[in-house]
Amino acid sequence: MDLRKFVGSRPLIMAGACVLVFNEEGQLLLQRRTDSFDWGTIGGSLELGESLEEAAARELHEEAGLTADSFKLISILSGKDMYYKYPHGDEVYNVLAVFEAEGVRGVPVVNDDEGLELRYFSLTERIPELNPFSERVLRKLGYIVS
Question: How far is residue 121 from each of residues 9, 112, 140, measured CA to CA in Å?
Fold first, then answer.
């Protein structure tokens, strides 16, 4: 946020982590976002001095109240198709490490002010109100094909 005071809403490169949490039925945990009111993946940007894995663990706990034994790196995504414009106007080009959480413990619970609710969704059916950026990530990784 300090950087935004200097550059305003102009595009920035933002490094972050996305955490995929699957239940026993293979459904993906998504959160209804407070900024756009649609469903998105768990994750967020790195804090100063933080590793990608530490960001994944922090975001998983902050946004869903969960912990994981480990995080399996699925992919690193970047480039022009990782552009996102937030509802309030800030623009970013994401460099995104996508992890799958393994050995997840706890019961999903909204644990911060970024989410309204949490729910598991089947990836074999259309997810209503899926955040366009989350959809782009899931399609790029082959989790959504239709």
Answer: 32, 21, 18
Share of the chain above pLDDT 90, in %: 82
Burial class (CB in 10 A: 0-12, 13-18, 19+), 59: buried
* pTM of the entire predicted model: 0.90
Longest dimension (CA), the chain: 46
Contact 39, 30 (CB under 8 A): yes
Q: What's the total number of domains in the chain?
A: 1
- What range does the domain containing 22 cover? 2-138
- Is residue 137 predicted with pLDDT exceeding 80? yes
Q: Is residue 115 part of a domain?
A: yes
